[in-house]
Each structure stands twice: as structure tokens, then as C-alpha cells.
Specification:
The structure is a homodimer of 194-residue chains. Chain A has 194 residues and is an all-alpha fold. In chain A, 76% of the residues lie in helices and 0% in strands. Chain A contains ten helices and no strands. Chain A binds a DNA duplex (30 and 30 nucleotides) through residues 3, 24-26, 34-38, 40-42, 45-46.
DNA sequence: TTCTTATTATACCAATCGGTATATAATATG
DNA sequence: CATATTATATACCGATTGGTATAATAAGAA
């Protein structure tokens, strides 16, 4: 792992633990075993470092999502949601620190700098998930513009499940299976009564 | 409104907009029209101010929640969830800034100071909601310890709905009705198929 | 009036914030 | 070899961070 990569990973670890705003550039440099000017040479600014981190991990997530929802009949909502759930779970397991750091930024105040930086990644995810529900208008009846509400609800359910698992202290690896994905999708589609 | 109250409201407004970590004590004092020593006289520290704020608003939320889930047959899950949803929506409307600030703290990194400060309030909420599902073990069948998962799922759905409404830029006031609460509870209980 | 307690302001603290000017190695290219 | 580019360190910048020592003011109680 080269120098730049190492700085990104060290920064992510600190952001994940204490948050973007409370971690100083100085500390990132110390943990990375470099000095501040080296960091600024690579990333121009603290926000540039964050952008670089989001770009690096976000592109992986978006690629996985696109792969999950493609190559199926457009009407198969349940199938697509299953693939989607698996993609998110897998990503949350292999990129646990970024996943939860992304979640923390999603819920950050609207005018917070870090929030503004992650908006594009969030928007893109919502766009892709909303499309799934739009293509499902046939099997789900007239949605009357509720596609976005459904997309938000589905992702909310998913994120919520990951949070609960993480808080339980269970090894995330154990939820990496189709049964878990099915449980989440089923609850979203049919509720807890069933 | 006395001096102390005014400082709390000004601080909340700033925290809501940019986050606890990025707002300095100096700025809070300036916006409040007082000086730093005055703030420290009242709250001892920046974290003391946050504690005071959480205590003030949190006690209202907890009171509303307790009121919502009490005084009904223990088995009436749907009824209790409806009351619960109404309580959260009402609180989210009348204390919009605190509600979303609380959300942002809920998803903050585990070792973040502000997160550690709000933990007790979050735990108490989860405890109260989990109890609803525990009492419903009869009508919902054996839950096998899924009460907490249900509580988290329900609150997640609720918060998610509020976020979407807020992002749409719609006046929060318009969702303060029983139909909205019913829609949320119904989706949670029976899924989006129905 | 005098004493006590509750407020408020001036002025300061060391430490840290994000960021940079400058110089020097190291490496690649001609 | 010489030149250009990449990569790294020393030392510093002004501004802000959370927090405080000290003193003055205001107000209520004796």
C-alpha cells in the first residue's frame, strides 16, 4: 500500500471513530507517519482529503449497486431488492468503517461541510434505488410519486438493520448471507406481520 | 425568556445548522448577546451546555412518549404504535431543530463526545419502544428476542419518513395528522404491498 | 446599611486549528 | 550527466479552540 492510500485509510479510521470535524489534520499526519505538508501535497486541503476518500470508496459502492440492479427483468422488484440488500450488506461488511462513516455524514446538519461533500454520493444512491421502484410501477400499482419515499424507506430499513447488528457487537461477517437479505426485503415488502 | 433559556435556544440553532463540533463557544456567546464567562457561569463547560439542552428537550420527548404508550390494553400493538407515531411527529414538528439535531447525534461516531452525551436519551427511547413490542408478544407471536430489532426498525422508519419530508422542503406542519401516522404504522406492520 | 449571592465584563491562557513558505532529498527523463 | 518532477521535512503563519483569573456590578436579605 503506497503512501497516499495509507493516509486515506488512517484518516478514515479516525473519522469513523470520532467524526470528521473533531479530527485535526495534524493527528491524521501523525498516525499516518508523515508530516502535514506531505498530506497537503497529496490532497490540497482537509476537505480535499475527504473528497478523495468519498470518491475512492463511493465509486466501489455505486459500482456494486449498479451491478446488483442490472440484468434482470424490469418488473422483478423483489429480486432486485434482494440483490440490492446483498450488495449493501456485503459492502457494509467489507468496508465497515466507511459504511458507518457515510451514515454519520448522511444525518449530519445540512450546512455542515462534510455533509455537503457527501451529498453527490447520497443523491446517486437514491437515484439508483428510486429507479428500481419506478420500473416496478406495474407490479406495485400506481405509485403517485411515492417512489422516492419507498427508496428512502428501503434504505432506511437497511441502514437501521446494519446499525442494530453493529451495536450488538456481533461480527458483521455473520450477516453476510442471503437469509439476512431476504428477511430485510420481506419485512419491507410485507411488514412484520407475516 | 430568561437569559439561560436564550443561550440554549441560540446554541441549538447553531448546532442544528452546522453541528456540535464545528460551533465554537465564542460564536454561541456572540449570537446569544452575552460573553463567554457568562455562558460558563451557567453551564460550566461546552459539554455541560449540551447536556442541559438534551435534558431540557429530551425530558419533553420522553414524557410525550410515555403518555402515548400508556393507558391502553397491553395487547393493542397497532393502537400503541399509532399513538407513538403521532407523538414523534408532533414532537418533530414543534421541536424541529432539536429533533433533527438529535438524529444527527444518534448516527455520530461511537467515540464522539456529543454522541456519548446523548446516549442515555436514545437508550431510554429504545427501552420504551421495545417494551411495546414485548407486551405484544401475544398478538405478534413468539418474538425470539426480535423486540429490539422491531423497535429499531419502527423508529428507523419513522425517522426516515421525517427526513424525507424535511428534505422535500414541505412545511412540517402539514404532516401533523392521523393519516400520516397511520400510513407509517401500516407500512411498518404490513409492508408496502397493501 | 451591610453582607451575601447572582450576574456580567475585561483580559488573558496554552493549545490547537487549517494551511503555507522554503528547502531538500529522491527519482525519473532527456 | 543534467534537468525536471515527485515527494518529504523544518519551521512557521494568523486565527480560533475551550476555558479561566479577576473584578466589577446588580440585587436581595439581614
Amino acid at each position: 500500500m503506497d503512501n497516499k492510500e495509507n493516509i486515506l485509510e488512517c484518516a478514515l479510521h479516525l473519522f469513523f471513530k470520532r467524526g470528521y470535524d473533531t479530527v485535526g489534520v495534524q493527528e491524521i499526519a501523525e498516525v499516518s507517519g508523515i508530516t502535514k505538508p506531505t498530506l497537503y501535497y497529496y490532497f490540497k486541503s482537509k476537505n480535499g482529503l475527504l473528497k478523495s476518500l468519498i470518491e475512492k470508496k463511493g465509486s466501489i459502492l455505486l459500482r456494486d449497486i449498479k451491478e446488483a440492479v442490472s440484468g434482470m427483468e424490469v418488473g422483478d422488484v423483489q429480486g432486485k431488492l434482494l440483490h440490492l440488500a446483498r450488495a449493501y450488506i456485503d459492502f457494509g461488511v467489507k468496508e465497515e468503517e466507511f459504511y458507518f462513516f457515510m451514515l454519520s455524514l448522511m444525518y449530519s446538519p445540512r450546512e455542515n461541510e462534510a455533509y455537503l461533500t457527501i451529498i453527490p454520493l447520497i443523491r446517486e444512491q437514491y437515484y439508483l434505488v428510486t429507479k428500481v421502484f419506478e420500473q416496478a410501477a406495474g407490479s406495485l400499482g400506481n405509485m403517485n410519486g411515492r417512489q422516492e419515499q419507498f427508496a428512502a424507506g428501503f434504505l432506511g430499513t437497511l441502514h437501521c438493520f446494519m446499525m442494530v447488528q453493529s451495536e450488538k457487537g456481533i461480527e458483521m461477517q455473520t450477516i453476510r448471507n442471503d437469509a439476512t437479505a431476504y428477511a430485510i426485503v420481506h419485512q419491507f415488502l410485507h411488514g412484520i406481520y407475516s
